[in-house]
Amino acid sequence: MAKYEPIEMVKSYSGKICEHSDVYFAKKGKTLYTGKICNPRTKAFSAEELARQEKFRQARAAVKALTMEQKTAYAEAFANQKKYSSLQGYMFAKEYEKLGA
User: Fold this and answer.
1) What is the pLDDT of residues 3-23, one digit of tens each?
2) 101 CB-side CA count, 13 A
3) Which label site among 27, 44, 56, 101 has the fewest CB atoms less than 10 Å from its CB?
4) pTM (2 decimals)?
5) How far apart are CA 35 and CA 30, in angstroms?
6) Do residues 34 and 24 lie in contact, with contact meaning Cβ atoms separated by under 8 Å?
7) pLDDT at residue 57, as a whole number
């Protein structure tokens, strides 16, 4: 394992980092992080995984199709909660819940 010295743009690395895969940058809430995918998937998706992916697509489409009144109602409800850090994430979670019911 090589020793990495973080550049100024990246404050820290954590976990295993290898040299044979691409680096990705991500943000979750207020935390920025990087990583590498060491062992990419090679097998086919199961029926359960495909169903989960389709449900995700439907929830994204439902969020995009919201009217201005619905978005305003979500914005008011979003202001009164602490769990989600973004309005988009809140709307997606609520639309995803509707698909599960």
Assistant:
1) 655 555 655 656 666 666 567
2) 6
3) 101
4) 0.64
5) 17
6) yes
7) 97
Q: Specify whether the CB–CB gap between 90 and 74 falls below 8 A.
A: yes
First to last CA, the chain: 47
d(CA 77, CA 89): 13
51-84 per-position pLDDT tens digit: 999 999 999 999 999 999 999 999 999 999 999 9
Would you call 87 helix, strand, or coil by DSSP? helix
Gap between the Cα atoms of 90 and 83, Å rounded: 8
Distance between CA atoms of 28 and 83, rounded to whole angstroms? 13
Note every long-range contact of 86-92, with CB atoms under 8 Å and residues 24 or more positions apart, other chains counting: 88/63, 91/63, 91/66, 92/59, 92/60, 92/63
Task: Provide the token pair at 72.
Answer: 């305003």
Contact at 8 Å (CB) between 50 and 61? Answer: no
